Amino acid sequence: MAIVDERTEKQKKNDKRNALIFTVYIGISAFFLIGIETEFNAPFFFTFKYLALPIFIIVGAISIKYPYIFCYKSDGVLFCSIAILFIMPMVIIIGSMGYVSFFNVILPPQETVYYKGIIKEKFISGASRKSYVIALDIDDDERRFSVSEEEYNKLKLGQFYKIKMKKGGLGIVYKINW
Q1: Interacting residues of 122 by C-beta distance below 8 A, sequence separation 6+
Q2: What is the pTM of this model?
Q3: Helix or strand or coil: residue 111?
Q4: What is the helix (H) or strand (E) element at residue 9, kind and residue range?
Q5: Cys-Cys crosslink for 78: which of 5, 34, 68, 96, Cβ 3.0 to 4.6 Å?
């Protein structure tokens, strides 16, 4: 559906401001994700389990109240797409993972936990920012943890391994890398 762009200069300026706010939102989240090491993909699973539905509802409500927010301009014509309405919540959900990690660290209760087990699997995840991951067999349950490259290279499959971490207020196991 094509709509003539009738927005004022103030509205267009607000679009630039909103883009900056969104970029800062994603940047801060990335900072927390890099600085707070968790059990492999734990913030991702927590975010989808508990935040996906509320985020979809909020984005839907915002798109009804402010229909131009999910539109883009091409050749002087404003296009509004249902696809953008579904993509935006997914981007917000993924961007929320760093904040989930942050709140997990600051909310009580906090407890120290130890994981001990046999290294069942080792692999490298990611392309530009590599994560060195080991899978521990703990009482017939597989738990995955990121380790440093140096530690990864020293570890062997079948070796016993013990890792000390904290369990945060949201129930996610973590350690801080700062």
Answers
A1: 132, 133, 134, 135, 152, 155, 157
A2: 0.79
A3: strand
A4: helix 9-35
A5: 5
